[in-house]
Amino acid sequence: MNKILFAGLLALFATTVSAEGASCNATAQEKKLAGAAKNSFLKKCEQDATTRCDALAMEKKLAGAAKNSFTKKCVKDAVGTP
User: How many domains is the chain partitioned into structurally?
Assistant: First the structure.
């Protein structure tokens, strides 16, 4: 019984992670962007991530420092490391 529950939770987690997609930097590398095209793509991607993260914070009814902290981490995760 526990194995079935664990497998179900693992499948749900995998679906959630894949729905988020790759980070902005990973996507830029996959598309082989460089120079101004890469900078433009990353700027737009970060703006989109900020919008999504703000919406998630509102859904979670966060405010003040909790909202700022959540949004900052959410955007950082979405952008990824260069």
Answer: 1
pLDDT tens for each residue of 16-51: 333 357 899 999 999 999 999 999 999 999 999 999
Q: How far apart are CA 6 and CA 26, in angstroms?
A: 30
pLDDT reported for residue 81: 74
Q: How far apart are CA 82 and CA 73, in angstroms?
A: 16
Among candidates 68, 60, 77, which has minimal Cα distance to 17? 77
Joined together, the tokens standing for residue 30 give 């996959």
Domain that holds residue 39: 23-79
Residue ranges of the alpha helices (H) in the chain? 2-20, 24-30, 35-59, 64-79
Extract the tokens encoding 70: 């959540």
